[in-house]
Amino acid sequence: MSEGPVYDPGGNWQLPGPNGVPHAGTYGGGDAGAGFEYDEQTLRELMHEWNDLANEFRDDQQRAQLLAQAQGPGLEYASEGNAEQIRSSGIALLATLGERERYCRSMAKKFEAALGRYAAIEDANNTEIRQTGGTL
Q: What gap in Å lies between CA 47 and CA 112, rounded to an integer?
C-alpha cells in the first residue's frame, strides 16, 4: 500500500487549521493526493460497521411495518383518517429506511472491494520481495 497517513478510528482527532498539516483520515492534501488511505484492519472494521448499520436499518423496517399497517381504533371518520395518515407516514418511513439500508450495503461492498485490492497489492509485493531473494 502507499505510504502516508492512515485513518485510525481511535485516534486523537485534530482538524488541520490554515497552517496545519493534514492528519490521518483527513481528505486530500499531502503527497498521497486526494482521498483516504486505510490499513487492512480499518478497512475490515469499516466494512463491518457499514453492514451493522444496514442491519439496524433492516430491523427498523420491521418495526415501521407496524405503522404502515395501522388501523383506526374506531369506525368513525376521524379514526380512519388518523390511521390513514399514520399508514402514509409508515410507508414513507419504510421507503426511507430501505434506501438507507441499500446505501449502507453499497458502502460495505466498497470497503470489501478495497480489501480485495489491498490483498492483491500485498500479494504482488510479497511475490516481488521473494523474487529478489528477500523474506517477510
A: 6
Helix axes 40-68, 77-131, angle to 10 degrees: 170
For residue 48, what are the contacts with CB-CB under 8 A and spacing of at least 6? 108
| Among the listed residues 57, 61, 44, the one whose alpha carbon sits nearest the alpha carbon of residue 108 | 44
For 108-135, how does the pLDDT look when each residue is reduced to its tens digit (9 = 90+)?
A: 999 899 888 877 777 777 777 777 776 6
Is the pTM for the entire model greater than 0.85? no
Cell numbers for 110: 466498497
C-alpha cell at 20: 496545519
Distance CA 132, CA 24 (A): 32
Three-state SS at 126: helix
